Amino acid sequence: MNKQRKYAREKYSFSVDLISENFTENCQLIDISVGGCKVRASHKIDKGIPVKLIIKKFGQLEGKIIWNSHRNMGIRFSDDPNSVGELLIALATYGPA
Fold first, then answer.
1. Entry pTM
2. What per-residue confidence (pLDDT) applies to 44?
3. Domains by residue range for the chain, with CATH
4. Which of 10, 25, 57, 63 has the highest Cβ tally under 10 A?
C-alpha cells in the first residue's frame, strides 16, 4: 500500500458519474477506498474542485479532486468514513450496477 494512503484501495472498472457545480462527467472508476478513489475522465479536471461521485444503485460520495495526471485524477472523500465503508461493503457484496 502507498505510504501516503490511510486505507487500502480495491480495484474496480465500471462507469460512475462525477458532478460539480459546472459539469457532469461520466468517468471510469479505477479504484476506491474509504478515504478516496481514482477515476479516469475524458479530459483533465482541475485540482481543488469539489465533486460528487455518483455510483448508480449505491449512492453518492462527496469529495475534492486532490491530484490529476492527464485524464486520471484522485478524489479525497469528505464523507464520514463509516458511511463510505457501508457503501463499499454493499458494492463488494452486490457488485457494480
1. 0.89
2. 87
3. 10-94 (2.40.10.220)
4. 63
Q: How far is CA 60 from CA 46, 53, 54, 70, in A?
A: 20, 5, 4, 24
Task: Return the amino acid letter for 75.
Answer: I
Dihedral of alpha carbons 56, 59, 65, 68, sign: negative
Q: Residue 92 gets which letter from DSSP?
A: H
- In sequence order, what DSSP letters do the residues of 6-58 get, joined into one string? SS--EEEEEEEEEE-SS-EEEEEEEEE-SSEEEEE-SS---TT-EEEEEETTT
pLDDT tens-digit map of 3-27? 566 777 778 889 999 999 999 999 9
